[in-house]
Design goal:
Helices cover 42% and strands 11% of the residues. It is an alpha/beta fold. The structure holds a DNA duplex (15 and 10 nucleotides).
DNA sequence: CGGAATAAGCTTTTT
DNA sequence: GCTTATTCCG
């Protein structure tokens, strides 16, 4: 450590300090650091440790632009940069001459795996045989494109259930992110689709090809292309040479593909620091695998060191007692037990209520009572297993005019009008993106799939979009809109067109179409577009706006309670997944019953039940002072279809065993809830009888890649060859 | 050919 | 309840 250690180092505990100052400063602006794994239990100052690590490195002379900081969201990256900047400012003896004394530290390479991948791929595009202006498809765009091909290949017409587009995409994505063969993935996760193995492979292969003709990459492609790029020693060396330090947050949620990328960037682990908590791994459905963090050390020779943070600064001890009791039932984990630095407090409560309506009442009563004692709404959160669970509560909050913001369950980006406007921008950005064009054209009155396709064929033959469009005939009903579209294309189509004002220009064009299609709802939808317009202003370019938006869409939709403003106080509603990394004074967890915790779809295998346990653990450990688990005795069976015979709702969560119950207050008399069998297996889906399937022998035009430079790695070919 | 109306299926979590 | 596929009418 330097003789004049910054004062903030003293505020850290010994383990944190060890992690922050890991490695040997060499005096020339570099720090030599062996690989390190930091196991940071919930609330043990993980963010603070990472932020201080960054600050410390910068203070040793490391160039912030040479630090790669992988986080799980854009927001987390910004928060990290802000806190690192804060720490640095403090050690700079205020009044100093150093440049960024106030505000966030500039960390150009802080972001998610996907965002970093997009940036690197654009930078190295020509060496990789990629179009540097590629678009990024978000999940639903990807599903739509896949669906198009599914349709072309004739699968939508089959009577025996061919998997839906979302299922298809989930299968492909899981296989790619875990690197496992399709058949194994199907057998493991989608056994009812095994009969479609060959068809799916053909579908995925055609999908990979189509994305290339459209010059688009989906989420998985970003990682796959990054991995492919790293397979070339020279490019790998170039990329690795950009960074002296690689810090990875939430390492427990990395998948095989991501772990491989890190290994390729730093084969010896030099400068690599992984931070995470195996007890909070909750993304297995996305291919994340807890084994990566459990075996992180062994991939290096000598094995990586490990530092464990157990001192919890967030919660009162009774909350931790409950969480610790829950995890004591878990099998695989680095042994640890959280200890509160804060001391005693109220025991968490298990509240048994009659039904979901009573649950909503109880939560609102509790929230208001907390506010009376001075806890603002913003410091309180209601968490749930899946997005619909807050429905009753939302209705009730709206009725009582209590403002709230809901995170998770991405509805905003899926709204038709939002997608329309973004499709216009995407089409301008990448005229080869025919899916965007297809969507835009069909906004016009009198223009359906057939006409749109014909127009797109014409456009494909032209270099400039505006030129192509002027060659097409407008549908009679849309002449004015059509002319306006051509004018718009001419104005904002060229890549060098100024970004400022483009979004408004698109909205101006779209507004009449919006009013025509949605008559009554137009005003609400126009307001959504205003929200988006405000966001657009914060990005420097169209490309950046579109990419960032696809990779990290706004997670909150606030139209229900009358969009709360930034400075206003509002209650937080969130899925447990979206609550990752956050904390509040008071936390309510809805529907803690068997069927939700664990979810009824996850009761098949032991490892998925363990993941559900961790999910409840994450929910509990968000709470600083008060925690309440709510257990409705019955669910309103309003629109429950017939399959719901064996509905497991109402049974006590299997995670609330005697040891956990002992840490809870207000436990009702035993047996009250245990009259339903808690262990029903998920219903077997009848295997589809082999139906004769028409093979439309989709003619795939060979994709041509004309790039100025000769690519070193043909990433495109590698992406196609996966299937 | 486009678009509205009807019928049938399917429901977790998200970068 | 929602989305998606098919049918039918202008």
């Amino acid at each position: 450590m330097t003789p004049s250690a910054p004062p903030w180092l003293n505020r850290l505990n010994p383990q944190q300090r060890a992690a922050v100052t890991w490695g040997m400063p060499r005096g020339d602006g570099r720090v030599q650091a062996a690989p390190l794994l930091v196991i940071a239990g919930a609330g043990t100052g993980k963010t603070a440790t990472l932020a201080h690590r960054v600050a410390w490195l910068v203070e040793q002379g490391v160039d912030p632009a040479r630090i790669l900081l992988i986080t799980f969201s854009r927001r987390a990256a910004q928060e990290m940069a802000r806190r690192a900047g804060q720490a640095l400012a403090q050690s700079l003896d205020t009044g100093g001459v150093c440049p960024p004394a106030q505000g966030a530290l500039q960390l150009p390479w802080a972001g998610t795996f996907h965002a970093v991948a997009a940036r690197l791929l654009r930078l190295h595009a020509s060496a990789l045989g990629l179009d540097s202006g590629f678009s990024v498809l978000d999940r639903s765009d990807a599903a739509d494109l896949l669906d198009l091909i599914r349709h072309e290949q004739g699968w939508s017409a089959t009577r025996s259930r061919f998997p839906r587009k979302d299922t298809c995409l989930a299968i492909a994505s899981f296989a790619l992110n875990t690197g496992r063969p399709l058949r194994e993935v199907l057998a493991h996760g989608w056994p009812w689709c095994l009969d479609w193995h060959d068809a799916l492979r053909k579908l995925f292969s055609a999908y990979a090809e189509r994305k290339q003709t459209h010059r688009v990459l989906d989420f998985d492609d970003l990682l796959l292309a990054w991995e492919a790029a790293l397979s070339d020693p020279q490019i790998a060396a170039q990329m690795a040479a950009r960074f002296d330090h690689i810090l990875v947050d939430e390492y427990q949620d990395t998948n095989t593909l991501q772990a491989g990328i890190l290994r390729a960037l730093s084969p010896q682990g030099e400068g690599l620091m992984a931070v995470g908590d195996d007890a909070q791994s909750i993304y297995a459905f996305r291919g994340a695998c807890i084994d990566h963090i459990l075996s992180f050390g062994e991939q290096f020779d000598p094995p990586a060191q490990r530092i464990t943070l157990q001192r919890n600064y967030r919660s009162v001890q009774p909350v931790l007692d409950c969480a610790n009791a829950l995890m004591a039932g878990s099998t695989q984990a680095y042994p640890k037990s959280l200890q509160a630095a804060r001391g005693p407090g109220a025991r968490p409560v298990l509240a048994t209520v009659a039904d979901e309506r009573a649950q909503a009442d109880r939560v609102i009563g509790g929230v208001l009572a907390q506010r009376e004692t001075g806890v603002p709404l913003k410091e309180q959160a209601v968490l749930f297993r899946n997005a619909q669970h807050s429905e009753w509560l939302e209705v009730e909050l709206t009725r009582r005019k209590i403002p709230f913001v809901k995170h998770g369950g991405l509805r905003f980006m899926d709204a038709a009008h939002v997608k329309d406007v973004l499709a216009v921008l995407r089409w301008m950005q990448q005229p080869r993106d025919a899916l965007a064009g297809f969507r835009v054209l069909q906004c016009l009155p009198g223009m359906g799939p057939a006409l749109a396709e014909r127009a797109l064929a014409v456009c494909a033959a032209h270099e400039r979009l505006s030129a192509g469009l002027s060659q097409c005939a407008s549908p009679p009903a849309a002449v004015a809109h059509w002319e306006a579209l051509i004018a718009l294309t001419r104005d904002i189509g060229p890549r060098e067109a100024r970004w400022r004002g483009q979004f408004d220009a698109v909205c101006d064009w779209y507004q009449p179409l919006l009013e025509r299609r949605y008559r009554d709802g137009a005003a609400v939808r126009a307001a959504d577009l205003q929200v988006l317009a405000a966001m657009a202003g914060h990005f420097g370019s169209r490309e950046q706006f579109l990419t960032e938006l696809a990779l990290d869409p706004p997670s909150a939709s606030g139209d229900l309670a009358g969009a709360p403003y930034r400075d206003e106080d509002y209650l937080i509603l969130s899925t447990v997944h979206s609550a990752k990394g956050q904390e509040w004074d008071a936390v309510w967890v809805l529907n803690v019953t068997d069927g939700n915790f664990p979810n009824e779809y996850a009761t098949g295998a032991a490892h998925s039940i363990e993941e559900e346990r961790r999910l409840l653990y994450v929910a509990m450990t968000r709470a600083r002072n008060t925690l309440e688990l709510i257990e409705p005795r019955a669910f309103a069976v309003t629109h429950q279809p017939r399959l719901g015979d064996r509905h497991v709702t109402g049974a006590r969560s299997r995670f609330l065993n005697a040891a956990v119950l002992a840490t809870l207050e207000g436990v009702p008399s035993q047996g009250a809830l245990n009259d339903v069998d808690p262990c029903s297996t998920p219903p077997a889906v009848p295997g589809g009888a082999a139906a004769a399937v028409a093979d439309s022998g989709a003619a795939q035009s060979a994709t041509e890649h004309r790039q100025s430079a000769v690519p070193r790695v043909d990433v495109a070919a590698r992406l196609r060859s996966r299937w």
